[in-house]
Amino acid sequence: AQTVTQSQPEMSVQEAETVTLSCTYDTSESNYYLFWYKQPPSRQMILVIRQEAYKQQNATENRFSVNFQKAAKSFSLKISDSQLGDTAMYFCAFLIIVDSNYQLIWGAGTKLIIKP
Amino acid sequence: KAGVTQTPRYLIKTRGQQVTLSCSPISGHRSVSWYQQTPGQGLQFLFEYFSETQRNKGNFPGRFSGRQFSNSRSEMNVSTLELGDSALYLCASSLAPDDTQYFGPGTRLTVL
After folding, report:
1. Cα-Cα-Cα-Cα dihedral sign, residues A116, A38, A21, A52
2. Which residues of A are less than 8 Å from B33 in CB distance?
3. SS3 of residue B100 by DSSP
4. Residue pLDDT, tens place only, B74-97
């Protein structure tokens, strides 16, 4: 079964600190895409970063970067210089073929609170 | 380029009624997926449409249905509403089924 596990239900850090959110997944497939989405209190789901499983280089998007360890099936998100606007639920997901169709498999989310 | 739009943003219905939610994808996107989000169950996949065809369906009862039009706009219908259908319904569009999904703001459905 394809699963995504986010082991940290909630995290809290001070503004300007660096925080890492963990994500592990389970699949027997070799080709897939990994994503981090954020959902602020407005409830709009926003793409943070995307990683192709076939790429060894870790994706980076401004203050957001990932540590992708394919063998360990780990995909953590690092937020540098955290800002108050980073407060949100963060979801890890991967896009994979399920019964011949692509499907996005979601983790349960990590609630991140940035304190002033 | 305009993002994904969903209408209405909020809905209040009573048990037994039916409801139709609408989703307009990003221009050029042909794949539309629907998700139900509740505090207890998290994000659950409802179905996905590509080129007017339902390609994939989640584990939901037949009361949940959808369709996609030739302009890629999609509608989702829920009949005989139950209290447990209260949720945020999210629509996402992508260029193709194997591409990144971009989400709309959601429709908050409350069933009384």
Report:
1. negative
2. 104
3. coil
4. 999 999 999 999 999 999 999 998
Cβ distance of A50 and B100 shorter than 8 Å? yes
Phi (first) and psi of residue A84, to 5 degrees: -55, -35
Residue A96 confidence class, pLDDT cut points 50, 70, 90: confident
Taking the C-alpha atoms of residue B21 and residue A60, their distance in angstroms, rounded to an integer, is 35
Q: Which long-range contacts (CB under 8 A, 24 or more apart) does B53-57 make?
A: B55/A101, B55/B97, B56/A98, B56/A99, B56/A101, B56/A102, B56/A103, B56/B97
Structure confidence at residue A31 (pLDDT):
84
Answer whether residue A16 shows pLDDT above 80. Answer: yes
Which one has a higher pLDDT value, B41 or B62? B62
Q: Do A42 and B105 touch (CB under 8 A)?
A: yes
Q: Does B55 touch chain A (CB under 8 A)?
A: yes
Taking residue B57's Cβ as centre, other Cβ atoms within 10 Å add up to 15
| Cβ pair A98:B43 closer than 8 A | no
Q: Would you call B42 and A108 a contact, using CB atoms and an 8 Å cutoff?
A: yes
Q: Is A70 on the interface with B (CB under 8 A)?
A: no
- Residue identified by tokens 């990994």 is A34
Q: What is the CA radius of gyration of chain A?
A: 14
State whether A47 and B56 contact (CB < 8 Å). no
Q: Which residues contact B15 (CB under 8 A, 6 or more apart)?
A: B81, B82, B83, B111, B112
Q: Which of B43, B55, B56 sits opposite A106 (nearest CB)?
A: B43
Q: What's the rounded Cα separation, in Å, for the pair B108 and A103?
A: 23
